[in-house]
Amino acid sequence: MKYTIDPQTLRDIPDEYEAWTQIGVAARMLGELDLAERALTKAFELRPSTAARLRLAHVLQWQGRFSEAHAEFAKCAETGEIPGFVHQHWGKCYFDEGRYAEALEHFRAALALREGGDPALVESTRIAITAAAARCS
């Protein structure tokens, strides 16, 4: 976590955006979705960005608030930023809803954007494609 040291107290002063983001992501992974939503909403307020909005949409998805999540994913897509991540996570939202054909479309779009890039991201997209394709048949 990024921080500075207060020269008077010598205490750590965290970068608020970074701290709220880390709290939110960890809380989501631990299933503490209300805390995750609060933390990631605060992070988004501090530094509105596509990445921050994407993280918040992911929490809405995990809460089963699919229409709200889709609205946030759509806003992310409109920016044209980090499109591979947007398609991958939007696809996961459709997957969680049981809308596998739409999930597959987003996963394929993510793969097209990620090919030749980070092998771990390409592999995660291939895993998602396999899972969605198996459920489409």
TrEMBL record:
Record keywords: Repeat, TPR repeat
Keyword Repeat tagged: yes
TPR repeats: 17-50, 84-117
Superkingdom in the source lineage: Bacteria
A Pfam family annotated for this UniProt entry: TPR_2
PROSITE patterns: TPR
Gene3D superfamilies registered for this protein in UniProt: Tetratricopeptide repeat domain
Name this protein carries in UniProt: Tetratricopeptide repeat protein
